[in-house]
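User: Modeling request: complex.
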Amino acid sequence: MGVDSYIPIDLKDCLDALATEDYWLFAGGTDLMIRKRQWHGASRRFNKPVMFINDLKALNGITADEEYIYIKACNSLLEVYNSPLVPEILKKAVITMANPAIRNMATIGGNIANAAKVGDTLPVLFLLDAKLELISKHDRRIEKISDFIKGKYQTDLRSGELLYQIIIPNKSFDVSYFNKLGTRHGDILSKLSVSSVITIEDNIIKDFRVAFGAINDKPLRDRFIEEKIINKEISQGQSLIYTLIEDYRLLLHGETDKRSTRRYREETAIKILHNYLKEELYD
Amino acid sequence: MKIDERTLRVDSVKKMRGENEFLEDLPFENLHYARTLRSDISRGFIKNIVYPEMPKDYYIVDYRDIHTNEVAMIDFDMPIFAKDRVNYIGEPIAFIVGKNKDKIIELMSKVVVEYEPLPAVYSIEESKANQVSILEAKDNNIFVKHHFAKGDLDGLEDCRVFEGYYETTYQEQLYMEKQGVVGDYDGEELKVYGSIQCPYYVKNALIHATKLSEEQIRVIQSDTGGAFGGKEEYPSLLACQVAAAALKIKKPVRLIFDRREDIMYTTKRHPSKTYIKSYVKDNKIIGMKFDIDLDGGPYIGLSDVVLQRALFTLTGAYLIENIDVTGQVMATNNVFTGAFRGFGAPQSMFALEQHINQIAKALKVDPFELKRNHFVKQGDSTATNGVYVEKIKLDQLASQLEKLSNYKEKFENNKEDEKYYRGIGVSFIPHGGGFTGDGEATHIKAKVKLRKNKDDTVDLLIANVEMGQGAKTALSKIVASAIGIDIDAVHYDNPDTKYVPDSGPTVASRTTMVVGQLLYLAALKVKDRFDEESFIVEENFKAPDYLVWDQETLQGNAYMSYSWSGVVAEVLVDKITYDVTVEKLYGVYDIGNPIDIKLVEGQIHGGMIQGMGLGMMENMTSKNGVIQQNNFEAYSVPTSKDIPEMAFDLVINKYDDGPYGAKGLGELSLVGVPPAIASAVEDAIGQRIFKIPVTPEYILEVKEYAENN
Amino acid sequence: MLKTINFTLNNKKVSIDVDPASRLLDVLRINFNLTGVKEGCSEGECGACVVFINDQLVNSCMVPMGNVMNKEIITIEGFKNTKQFEVIENAFLEAGAVQCGFCTPGMILATENILRTYKNPSLEEIKEGLSGNICRCTGYQSIFEAVMLAKEMGGDLWASTVISL
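Assistant: Request completed. Predicted assembly structure:
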C-alpha cells in the first residue's frame, strides 16, 4: 500500500511534475505528518501523491538588497531565526514556535501554505507587508500575503503552483513587539498573539502597525485604523488610543475552543494592545 | 548497603541506552495487531453491526468470544466488549485483528454500526436532576453514597457561618508510554503481558472472564513507562479483550493505543463538586458540613474507593469536632473515571483547603496561622471516630516550612508591581498510607517471598512493579541493608504471576510502607540463615492491632498511618493577561524516614509538577461526552519552561511498622500543590477562587464578576 | 509505491526500499529494529522520538522517509557509543534524572544538542533546549542538574560552535 511520491532533482523538475499532477507538497512535514497521522507502522494515507521539496537548493537561502529581503520557502524556522537579514519581529515570532526539534524542520513556507489559524509567522508577515512569489511551470506571480491567506487552511495557491519565496520590504522599525499567549510557557500553539511595530521621529509617529493572530480565522490587520495616528504628533496619538482600541474591538471575532474562550481572547488582545500603546506613546 | 547511604537507581543504565523493553519493544513470533471498534454515541442500543467480509487470517473479536463478558474490578458492571448497549463515546465494541495494519484500517473503515440513541447524561448536575436515569439496576443515578458524622452540628450556637462551592475537573495521567497489552495463548497457558501496575488484578480479571483455571493464566509486567494510577484498573479491561483474541486465534495479539485514543478513552481523574458549610467561633472551626459529588462515568470501577479516600482524608490536617460528611458518586455518560495519584484526596483537599483559606481571609487572619491552630495531635479523634495513634509532628513541620519558605515575611510584605500581582499560599495535607480501612488485611492479604540463592544473591518475589517511582531501587535497598549485602546482589525482576506471590497492587502509596516492611521482616529471616545454601522465606501481612475499622459504619481508623505535607506556593499573575507563573514551590514532608533521599526527591519533584499541572494548566473539559483536549499539545502538561524553583525538607518521624520507619509518599507530594497554588492566586488577585485549574480565562471571569457586582 | 532511500544510519551506509511517505520513526523501529526511539505522541510534541539528522535534533515521528535521502542519522543506539554519551550517562545517573525511562533517550539526545549549542548553558538555555521533551515523572529539576553536571564533568568534549543565537 502507500501512495505515489516524487523526489524532484531540481526546481524545474518539480514544476514540470506539478504541471501535470496535483501533489501534497512536503517541506519539513511538521503539519502534514500530523494531519495524516496514522497507526504506528501503518501507511500514511495521503489521498494524492506527495512531492518532497525540502532539499531543493533553489528553495533554500535568504538574501537581501536595498529594497527587499528574500526568504525562500523551505528555509527552516531555525534558519530564519539565525539569519542576520531577517527583521527582528519575525525572529521574535519564530522563536516562540513549538520547540527546538520542530524549529529545525518546520519551514516558513509550510507555515504559510498551511494557513492554520494559529500559524505564528502569519500575523507578522501581514504586518511587514510581505508579498509571496508563486511560481509554476509557465508562470510567475506576486501576491500580497494578506490576499493569499483567505481563511482557516485556505489559500490562493493555484493548480500547478509552488510557493517560491517570501518578499519583505527592507524596513527597520524603532520598536518591534510580539506577544504570544498559550496554555503553558513552552512548546505550545497560540491562543492569541499581538504584534506591532512603531517608528517615531522628531515627535512624529512615522509608522505604526498592528496585527492580531490566532483570534480571527486569518490574521487581523487594518491599515485604515493604523493611519489614524500616522504622521500625527505623539500627543495626538495619545489622545487617539481609545479610538484605536475600540476600532479593533469591533473587528476581533474570537472563538471559544479547547484552548481558550472568546471573551478571553478578544478582551486580552485589546488589553495587551492598550498597554503597549500606553507604554510606547507615553515614553 | 547501608540504608542512609545514597544509592544510584538500579535500573537507569538500560533506560539511558534505550535498551529496556517497553511493551511495544518486546518481540513476538507471528504477532498480530488489534484495533478497537468504538461506540460513536454516548448512550443507546446497538441495533446492528455489519462487518465487511473478513479475509483469511483477519478476525473479529467481540462479546461472543468471551466466556463471562464482565471486567472484574470491585463490581462487574463493565463489559469487556459492549454487547447490545453502549454507555459512553469510545466504549469498546470489538477488535479487528490481523497482521497487516493497513488492511485492518481498511476493514475497520467498512464497519457499519447502527445505533438507537438514548438520551444521555453529561454532568454531575444532570445526573443529580435525574431526568434521565442511566443505571439499569437503579432508578437514580447514584452509584454509591456514603455518610458519617461526628459530634453534633445542630447544637452549635453563636457561630459565624461560611459556605462555598468548589469544583475540580478531569485530569489525564499522560504517562509517556501509552497503554498496551499482549495476549498469547499456546493451547495450554495464557500469557498476558502489559504495561500495568497490578499483575494480580489483571490475573483475577482474566480468571473471571475466561474458562481457564488459575494455573493456566500468567500475567507478566513489561517495563512500564509511567502509570500514576492510569494503569491500575484500566488494563484489566484491555487484558480481557486481548486474552479473548489470543484464545480465539491462538496467536499472539498486541493492543497498543494511539495517544489520542489514550487521552480520550482511558480512565481520568473524577471531576468533583463540593459544598462546604463551616461554623466558626472565636476563630476556631468547630463544625463543618461537607458534601462531595464525583463524576464516575458510566461504570463504577474503583469510584467507591475513590470516594472513600476523598472522605476519609477529611478533615485534612485539622481537628474539627463536629462534622457531617456525605459523598456521592454520580453516573454519567462521560468517559470512565478511575485511579489517579491522590485518588479522591486532591478533590476533597482542594475544597477543604480553599474553604479554610477563605475563612481566614474573612476573619482577617493569616491562613498559615489559622490552619496551625487547628492541627491534629496524637490521640485526637479522626473524622471517622478513629484515633491518631502515632506521633504527629505537624507543628515541627509547619516551623520547618516557615523557615524554608520565609512565608510570614512574604505574606505580610508581598508587593505587587507594575506588571504582576504577587501571591503566596499554603496547604497542609495528610495522606493515608496503604489501603483504606481494613483493606490490607481483608482484601489484599499481601504475601512476599525472598529466595536466597547458592551464589549468595537474593531474589525479591513480589507482585509490585517499577513504574518510574523507584520501587526496584527502594525495595532492593531495604533488603540489601537488612541482610547486609551489596545492592547488586539483590535481584528484582518485573513480576510474573507464575513466579511471584500476590503482594498486592502498586497503588495507594503502599509499596514502600507495606510491602517494604514485609520484605524487611523477610530479609531479617534471610540474614539469620544466610550461610544455608538456598532457601525461600515468606512473610504475610498482619494488621497492626491498633487498626480498628468497621466497613459498614465507616467508623474507626481509616488508615494504618498518615504521611503529612506542608506546601507553600509563590505565584505571579500578569495584570493584563492573567497568565499565572508559579515561581516557587516549597514542601516539607513527614514520610517517617527516607529510604533514599534521591528517590524521595524524585517523587517530591514529580508530584509537585503534576500537582502544579492540576492546579493551573491542565484544563480538561468534556462536551457531550467527548473530551475536548484530545491531543498531546492541547492537553498542556508542564514543560521544562514551566518549572518553578522547588525546595523541600523532611521531618523525621519513624513509623514503627514501616521499613526503617518509612511511610508512603507517592501521592502525598501531589495533593498539597493545587490548593497552595489556588490560595496563592487568591492572595495575588484579591478575589476568591473556587475551582482548579486556575487558568487565565477563569481569573478573567472572576475579575469581571467582581467588577460587575 | 516503494523507492530506494539511501542514507547513513549510526555511521553505517544503509539502503532501504520503502514508501517515501512513511515515517522515519516507523522505519527505524520496525525495519531496523532500533527500539530506542519511542512513539509518545505522534505530533512532534513529546520528544521521545528524537534523533539527529545531519547533526540537527529532529522528531523522527515528523520526518517522511523522502526527506532522509543521503542524510546522516544518529539514534540513541549510535550515540551511546560516544565519549559524550558516557559523560551524560554518568551525569544523569548521579543527578537521579531517570525514572520510568521512556523520555530518557530523547532527553539525552536533547542534552547533547544543548551542550553542542551553548558554551556554558544557563538554566534558561537548558530549559529552552529541553522544551520539546516532556517528562511526566521527574518534574525536570533533576534533568536540569544532569545537564549542568554533564557540562562540568565533560568540559572540553563539546566543541563550542554556537549553532543558534
